[in-house]
Specification:
Helix content is 65%, strand content 7%. It has a four-stranded antiparallel β-sheet. The chain has a two-stranded parallel ribbon with strand order 1-6. The longest helix has 33 residues.
Length: 373
């Protein structure tokens, strides 16, 4: 078994772990800071909307020795508007100019053929109306709203309303960060961006639902025991699925990174950049939120339930009583399981730690360690 696999097995059994839920205020603070940065970026810089949302013309020029900067200058002089020029993988150019009608586009095309020294017939010109982009955006917003409503309904039925609320907050968190990154880096927003944003919703939910399923199983009949609080069971659920979450995220990010850095960077394919950046940022944000945001939020909401509050009080009282008898902290955590056969962890019989560090073996009672006399 590999080291990562062995670590995953130990995390699943609870032999080691990290207190994600206990340090949730740190994760909340980090998320709030990142979200505020994203919102400020949106407010200050705004989104660089593509030509599909503004309207205009797109000229595709065959392979030429003219530099991007010169092509941009020539296009702006010919059209009287700002131009965006991208180098394509085949050595050609993709030139976007907003607010052009058919007559103006024909004149610009003729002038570009002269300035760039290419055959006018080989320059492809496509006119795009702003209404098309608005239609796409409106349909995307409608689809996003329907998707979120269905997700909340399903999670509320399959799990519980607290998990539905936490998943919805995590989704909004992921989308806000992704859109904010677009504003900060100045990438153009195109229909490809919209496709990427809609795609990350499923990936963002995947890891979250995996942890929720583990938590649902682990917290079954939780009030019938006095060994673990709900937050500790939630923390065990995160640790138990941690390696799986890391593996699935890395496997998903690698091909997307290939699209972003190889396809978009070296080949100069603009549409690949549009889709892959939103996917890359969204996948990373989704992996973060499923571990550090969604499940701790569920624990926070659940701990307000009167039954769960009473359970926490019983667990802490039993541990305090065990510590007063001179037991170790770990022995105090296990005291309930020894006193009552039903006081085993809900959904799992094996003992487990809720914080970092390996479990030690359980020593005998009534005799201190040391050399026998």
């Amino acid at each position: 078994m590999s080291r990562l696999g062995a670590l995953g097995a130990r995390l699943y059994r609870g032999e080691v772990g990290y207190d994600f839920v206990g340090k949730r205020k740190i994760w909340y603070g980090i998320s709030i800071l990142i979200t505020i940065t994203a919102i400020v970026g949106l407010a200050v810089r705004g989104l660089n909307m593509g030509i599909e949302f503004k309207g205009g013309a797109v000229f595709t020029v065959p392979s030429t020795s003219v530099s991007v900067s010169r092509a941009q200058t020539d296009t702006e002089e010919a059209s009287g508007h700002d131009a965006i020029v991208q180098k394509l993988g085949n050595g050609g150019l993709r030139i976007q100019v907003t607010e052009l009608d058919t007559k103006q586009a024909d004149a610009v095309k003729t002038q570009l053929a002269k300035d760039l020294n290419v055959d006018e017939a080989k320059i492809n010109a496509d006119l795009v109306g702003p209404s098309w982009g608005e239609t796409i955006a409106n349909k995307a917003w409608t689809g996003l709203g329907i998707f979120m409503i269905l997700v909340v309904i399903y999670l509320a039925i399959a799990f519980e309303w607290r998990m539905a609320v936490a998943a919805l907050i995590a989704l909004i968190h992921d989308l806000t960060i992704t859109v904010g990154v677009y504003a900060l880096v100045g990438f153009e927003v195109t229909p490809g961006t919209v496709i990427g944003l809609l795609t990350i919703l499923g990936y963002s939910l995947y890891d979250t639902v995996v942890v929720f399923d583990s938590l649902k199983e682990g917290s079954k009949d939780i009030t019938k025991q006095t060994r673990w609080t709900y937050s500790e069971v939630a923390n065990r659920s995160i640790n138990g699925t941690l390696v799986r979450s890391i593996n699935t995220t890395v496997v998903a990010l690698l091909p997307v990174a290939g699209l972003l850095f190889i396809g978009g960077g070296f080949l100069g394919a603009g549409m690949l950049n549009d889709i892959s950046l939103s996917l890359f940022v969204g996948l990373a944000a989704g992996a973060y939120s499923s571990i550090f945001i969604a499940t701790p939020l569920v624990a926070d909401l659940k701990e307000r339930d009167p039954q769960i509050k009473a359970l926490k009080k019983r667990v802490l009282n039993k541990r305090a009583a065990a510590l007063a008898k001179g037991e170790t902290a770990e022995g105090a955590a296990d005291a309930g399981a020894e006193d009552d056969p039903e006081d085993a962890e809900p959904g799992e019989a094996a003992p487990a730690a809720a914080v970092v560090g390996p479990r030690g073996g359980r020593g005998g009672r009534g005799r201190p360690s040391g050399r026998r006399r």
